[in-house]
Amino acid sequence: MAGSESDSISRRTFLAATAAIPAVSILATVRAGPASDNPSWYSTMRRCGQINVNERDPLNFDAEGWMDYWASLRVNTVLLNGGGILAFYRTEVPYHHRSEFLGSRDLVGDMVTAAKKRGFRVVARMDCNLAYQEALDAHPEWFERERNGSPRRQDECPWLYRTCMFSTYFTEQMPAIYREINKRYAVDGFFTNGWPSTGSLEICYCEACQKLYRETLGGVPPETTDASNPVYRRYYGIYMDRILQVWKLWQSVAQEKSEESVYVGNLDGGIDTVKSLRKLSDAAAWFNADHQGRSGSTPIWNCAQQGRVAQSVMNGRTITNVTGAYATGHPLWRHNSKSPAETRMWLAQTVASGMVPWFHWLGGSPEDKRWRDTGHKFYGWLAANEPHFRNRRSIADLAVLYPQSTIAFYHRRAGREDAALGVNSADYLQGLYYALLEGRFLFDFVHQENLSASTLSRYRALLVPNGAYLRDGECEAIRQYVRSGGSLLATFETSRYSEWGDARQDLGLADVLGVSMSGEVVGPHSNSYMRIEQRNKVNAGFEGTDILPGPEYRLPVRQRGQSPAVLTVVPSYPSFPPEMVYPRTPHTAEPAACFREAGSSRVAYFAGDVDRTFWLSGNTDLGLLLHNTIRWLRGENAPPVTVTGDGLVETFAWETEAGYALHLLNYTNPNAMRGPFRRFYSIGTQRVAFHAAKPVQSVRALRSGHPLKFHQDGQRVTFAVPAVEDYELISLV
Ligand SMILES: [Zn+2]
After folding, report:
1. For 203, left (φ over 0), alpha (ψ -120 to 50), or beta?
2. How far is ligand 1, taken at its centre, from the CA of residue 160, in Å?
3. How many whole angstroms separate alpha carbon 529 and alpha carbon 552?
4. What order of strands is seen across the sheet that includes strand 591-598?
5. What residues have a C-beta under 5 A from ligand 1, the ion?
6. I need a surface site. Which of 125, 147, 379, 459 has the fewest CB within 10 A?
7. How far is the CA of 203 from the centre of ligand 1 (A)?
8. Whole-angstrom Cα distance, residue 62 to residue 75?
């Protein structure tokens, strides 16, 4: 789940698999990342903790005790409640509601004093989304309205009303509260719970919004995401502009006290995002992913994916990810601990993917304290090995396109039948991702809006999982990349539409892929096949069969050149009853896949949704076909790192301040696809070959704490990791 701590849990649909560079000028005062001569304090922090207090906590909150706990975790930064819905101090801002249990206590003062005594940076955790009746009475214009004009209430706490982002609550009331807190307390920044998020846009029926819709948009936007609607497209632009306007205002208010101060918005969503990550990243000095845990059949790698998505837009700047220490999921328990194994793997994915962990508990008087030890042990280990988490760059040489427009809009088009069939726009990426993990490939995400010669030049291949919605400029960047010798994998409707879903006459990359469309999408169909016409490296391992499983959907295409297709389409035929199960058209010339070589560039195109079909079915032939294809794309170039051994493992490799770091996450677990992890299942020897441009003096396994014997032959360092229980970090220095 997208684990926002806010009320969004009850408002959002739980998805089976849920889940941030030149449009807007970056704020002059947003500091650069770790490479900068004068780095911001948040670019060097490595560990964060948050105690999220409730209205009753002022009665007996032990500020010294709590800060002792965070000190024992060696955190750099704590997040402590300031205000918004409730003031935890004696505020003088009108309609800023004081906690009923505050009395004469200054809880914010007590917490900040205790934190500063221990040398922590302090971020005031705020909530801009809800306010009380007294504010509604005095400022009815601050609030969102339902279609019938009534104020929009919080589902579980109907005495709270939802504030409207387009109102002065955001541009006057919240800044007044920030200024008061900034004046009274030694805080280093502000964070807003639940806003702006990366999810769908919301529709409000307040007077200001209605006026905006009428006068600027020319109509009321649709209530669900629909990029085919011109009103929606204009609304998307205005909505993103408003987020950026508010974000920059709050950043400037935070900095009125000090240039060092920062405002942090709340982003989340994993791979499933709607709002423009590219625009959000232009405003964000620091990307906080509020992605606290998973639910249902969400795969375990959901947290690592969040890291990759954030990395694809932040370009080395600070990314944090919140880990809920409570039992995230559905149903949800806020006051019981999450399984320690699940918590550990979430924290491990956070740091392996280059994010900073932010460990989070709710309520100042816990009756379940088991989570404390889990955080204490993991953070202690992190602190002891800190230089190995200071990353300079990823050393992966495979790029996976993060196709945000497709994920945001493709299957969310109103009236599309496949939306009703439960097709998820993120399934194409999810399928490719699963294949990459099974094949032990090392890769990065590249956001579609960051496609450029300079971004792509360090990658051997670009993998595009149904990038159906691409701008002309993005198609051109891919074209130039292939011309300059880069390899490309693309599937299904890649480049068929503009970023909003306007269909092109032919695929935008038809010339690059070597195919042209010859009809409309066919499917969904079971029992179709791909016939092997030629034996080569791509279909190695299929010697016992002439046919491979076909995708559920396919785009009919014809080849532009004369070379015969390697795989052709065998159209679907009945799968029931058995008497009728035989191919009506056993052989066609329609390509199921095309493979082209020009110089060092290799291009593979699958006309069907092989990635998504692989995710849905888990079919092993489709997995092998994807592995073979990715290996073929590399040509003779050896990968920068290979890890061979048993188990489902996700790998990250970084050049670090200390040298190199190789992260191995052990997902070999019966609860990989349905959480939470109960325990770990240790995997045996992993043999590693690591290309190190810098000389290596020692190799150590930092989780198990052992030095590893290694062999160095030029720049190739080889060694064996005897076992991986949960997660291993190998340092090469
Ligand atoms: Zn409104």
Report:
1. beta
2. 16
3. 10
4. 444-447, 398-402, 461-464, 487-491, 601-606, 591-598, 567-570, 529-532, 547-549
5. 164, 166, 204, 206, 209
6. 147
7. 8
8. 18
Any residues with CB less than 8 A from the CB of 491 and at least 6 apart, and which? 428, 432, 464, 465, 466, 605, 606, 608, 609, 610, 611
Give the distance (Å) from ligand 1 centre to CA of residue 214: 13
Cα of 359 to ligand 1 centre, how many Å? 34
**pLDDT of 563 above 90:** no
| Distance in Å, CA 246 to ligand 1 centroid | 15
Q: Which residues contact 13 (CB under 8 A, 6 or more apart)?
A: none
Between 690 and 10, the higher pLDDT residue: 690
Distance (Å) of CA 12 to CA 3, 7, 199, 416: 10, 9, 9, 21
Helix axes 340-352, 370-384, angle to 10 degrees: 30
- Give the C-alpha separation, 545 to 619, whole Å: 15
207 CA to centre of ligand 1 in angstroms = 7
| CA 569 centroid distance within chain | 35
How far apart (Å, rounded) are the C-alpha atoms in residues 575 and 48? 55
Average pLDDT over all residues of the chain: 93
Tell me: pLDDT of 31 over 60. no
As a whole-number percent, the residues of the chain with pLDDT over 70 amount to: 93
Residue 219 Cα to ligand 1 middle (Å): 15
Contact status, residue 645 vs residue 568, Cβ threshold 8 Å: no
Indicate whether this model's pTM tops 0.90. Answer: yes
In the reported structure, the alpha carbon of residue 166 is separated from the centroid of ligand 1 by a whole-number distance in angstroms of: 6
pLDDT confidence bin for 2, thresholds 50/70/90 = very low
pLDDT value at residue 5: 41
Ligand 1 center–CA 237 separation, angstroms? 16
Query: DSSP string covering 614-676, please?
Result: HHHH--HHHHHHHHHHHHHHHTTPPPSEEEESSS-EEEEEEEESSSEEEEEEE--STTSSSS-
Reported as a single tens digit per residue, the pLDDT across 230-266 is: 999 999 999 999 999 999 999 999 999 999 999 999 9
pLDDT-derived band at 561, boundaries 50, 70, 90: confident
Distance in Å, CA 291 to ligand 1 centroid: 27
* Euclidean distance between the first and the last CA atom of the chain, given in angstroms as a whole number: 38
What is the rounded CA–CA span in Å between residue 660 and residue 658? 7
